């Protein structure tokens, strides 16, 4: 067997995303054995030494650090994976770029467009490889949706509709800030559902349906004050609890997006639907192996929504998994991202999208959405052309 080229990973952050990414690195050699590259879990970093040691033992990291600057300075690390809260992405990424490391950064790229731009400038100056973990692109049914749209089967596209609904913050007792609830703190997160959830919807939408050129948005903060875990005081809430926006895509279609953490009964309901002149597509994260497809060209007596179970070997990624009919899950989207990142290194032609530069386009839309809601007016996004 040919010797694999090793990519020595330094992971920063041991929360939910630290786990999804670590699982990705661990599984790739098993399920993508043909890749030239293979991950080596060299080091994991988090401030709490006891917790980071337990994480390293659980996921197979060779060593631990409690200071990310030390991790970045190590010359046995090739790629830095940023899984920390959003307020640390820019500082870590800029330092990692200066140290010549590849960077895999959890979404959203940054809290603000300006911060994201600094990150893009830094990685371009350093010439390092990057990717941002917009993982939903790599669920086979979502990748298939993209392939179907690219094939032209839908014809002219009129509508793109997406929702991301949750209900975990309805109680006024949920605190803001600190471990576990940093997403509720505007300083740490940058925004609420716009950066956390709509960013996913925007990334998928622009990848499949092209640039969003302008937006009109409304946001709401239903609970105005919450206990801050770091200060112990009740403080004003600065994030958007809910956001609805409509928009124009560059291809002439209309978009409608909604996200909230106040949709009682919904835990993580990400859905999208695309309506074209000939056909429509819809997808639902709660039934993620299925893609629904309606084709007006079908004979009228059998015309209706088809439910495609995306588990056949000739459908995206599925030749790597089980046998037709047996589904996969959420975690596989991260495994696919690791595999695609390594494949892009192997091929050396195209970087693994979305790169920092690609993800900056999503930041532009998020920023325009928040500006539009604040000013109660339409805003141009400045996004144009093909989105990788
Ligand atoms: C928030 O609850 C969250 O974990 C997001 O941060 C993730 O990006 C999303 O995929 C699921 O929901």
Automatic annotation (TrEMBL):
Domain GFO/IDH/MocA-like oxidoreductase: 144-282
Transmembrane regions listed in the UniProt entry: none
Domain (Gfo/Idh/MocA-like oxidoreductase N-terminal) ranges: 7-132
Domain of life: Bacteria
Keyword Oxidoreductase in record: yes
Keyword Protein biosynthesis: no
Alphabetic keyword roster: Oxidoreductase
GO MF terms, alphabetically ordered: nucleotide binding; oxidoreductase activity
Species annotation: Spirosoma endophyticum
Alphabetized InterPro entries for the sequence: Gfo/Idh/MocA-like_OxRdtase_N, Gfo/Idh/MocA_oxidrdct_glycsds, GFO_IDH_MocA-like_dom, NAD(P)-bd_dom_sf
Record's protein name: Predicted dehydrogenase
